[in-house]
Amino acid sequence: MSILLRYPLGEQHEAGADTTFIHSLATSVSREGRALWILHPFSFFGLYALSYPSAIPFLAAGFSELSGVGIEGTFWIMSLAFGVLGPLGMILLGRSISSDDRFVFFLAAVMALSPFYIKDTTWVGASRGFVVALVPFALFLSVRLIRRPSFKMLLLLLLLVVLMSAIHRMGVLSILILVCALFVLPFHKVTQALRFALVKHETKFRIGILVMATVGFVGVFFLQFQFPGMAGADVREQFGTGAYFSGESFEVLVLNMGVSFVGKVGLLFPVASVGVILYSWKRPKEAHDKFVLLAILVFLPLLSMRDYITEFIIPLIAVPIAFAAMAAVQTKLRARRTAAATVTVVLLLSAGAYAWIMKDYWSNRYETDAAIPDSTYATALYIRYYVLGATTNHGLTGGRVTAISERPSLPLGGASLHWYSSQQLIFRYVDGSDVRVAARDLFSMTFNTDDLYEPINVRNAEVDWETIMYGRLRDSGVERLLMRYEIHFLVIDRGVTPFSFRSYGIDRGSPFVVDVSLERYTVFSGDAEVIYFLG
């Protein structure tokens, strides 16, 4: 099922702006035999200036060199592998929690049918989905550590946390899983020793858990509503417009957020709330039950901070969903048990149909999630063999062209990371030995801060690109920048308004594009792009 859902129907190439960016990093590792952006140990985790989490570029480059498969084909194989790995991890987790085969199957199915997980493990090099595939293993190792504490199990869990952090910055969240496991170890022993004294407070404790979880989630979301951007993403910007509702009132934002969660986690997401309540009332509670409930309690308030947190906790949310399903089918009354089993099967089939419908939703809705079009791929192949050094009037196109052509270009990063990027090092726009950095002020850092150090003597590549686009072809300043970046060609995306460049989704008039169109000749004209020779 996992392979079937990820078969690239109608898609001939890798998908996503992050994928093309990581493609360029992996290509550089293959060509150079080393990662030019590793200037400091923190660079491996993307926490140093001009760096990026490096595990996936290393893995892709290594597999490509060993197998002889290109980076693009490597991404396809890796996506399938990680797409299958996640549900397999859920089977291990399910077995460590319950001996009921139905529970284990349902747990794996919830993970396998999660639309956002499918999207992020379908012919991509973008690493968020790969982190999520390892979350079940982090939960599994945590349960094993709680049941049979040992240094070996703790070391394995620590190594997995390090690996996940090196795949994507989101992987740092796995530290919270480790903290929950370490907390539950003594907590379970204390509650077991005092269980007879605490039994009269058990109901209050259960209600307290549910109240804390609800208040924590709503409280953080309300804080973001009152002070946009203060605690993570701007919720008005993120949830102001949804599939069914539009507006900036608190109620509309909450509704849109709920719809968004269903779209990402799957059709069974609403069942999770019922599952959490039932799970809280479960008796007796084993150590792993307390661990799961604590992890949910810790992650729930973080849900609205960044969209990828929703994806990160898909394996965790699957546990109460599966628990609710099992509670329904285990009723003692045969008629009710049959009805519950029928409803459960229908819901599971509906979730599968929903996943099939939603798997292409983001690539059809957002250009940055779409696969590289054949026409742009053809342009990139021309550049690969006939062009050295180019700039484009559209960053997304530039990122795609750079990935396939293996040639440097401006702007950096494709659809993002235009200012400072590891591409400045792999394109040799910047010499790594000359980079000077400064630690970020602790009080200036937010939930959206990506690194701990910032460059202080590196040119802002986005400013340079916009200076070119807003300048005239014969301006001395523009000429110096063209020489600095060794730019000899201009790639024009036909989808952008004529004589303009696209920045942050807005088409802006460009005197430079006008001058080039009038004074320079065309060397390539394709269905989607035109290439001009600048000299």
> Strand fraction band?
5-15%
Strand order of the largest sheet: 2-1-5-9-8
In total, how many domains does the architecture comprise? 2
State the distance separating the first and last CA atoms.
53 Å
Can you tell me the overall shape? elongated
- State the low-pLDDT regions, or none: none
* Quantity of strands, as a count: 9
For the CA atoms, what is the radius of gyration? 25 Å
Structural class: alpha/beta
Please give the count of helices: 25
Rounded mean pLDDT is 85
Which features does this protein show?
single chain, alpha/beta, elongated
How is this structure best described in words?
The chain is of the alpha/beta class. The protein folds into 2 domains: 2-365, no CATH class; 372-419 and 460-533. The protein is 59% helix and 6% strand. The chain has 25 helices and 9 strands. The protein has helices spanning 2-5, 17-32, 55-67, 71-97, 101-112, 115-119, 128-147, 151-167, 174-193, 195-198, 202-226, 235-239, 250-265, 271-280, 287-299, 307-312, 314-329, 334-358, 361-365, 374-386, 395-405, 423-426, 461-470, 476-484, 511-519, and strands at 390-392, 409-410, 437-439, 453-455, 489-493, 500-503, 506-509, 522-525, 529-533. The strands form 3 sheets. It has a 5-stranded mixed β-sheet with strand order 2-1-5-9-8, sandwiched between helices. Strands 3-4 form a two-stranded antiparallel ribbon. It has a two-stranded antiparallel sheet with strand order 6-7. β8 (522-525) and β9 form a beta hairpin. α23 (461-470) packs across α24 (476-484). The mean pLDDT is 85.
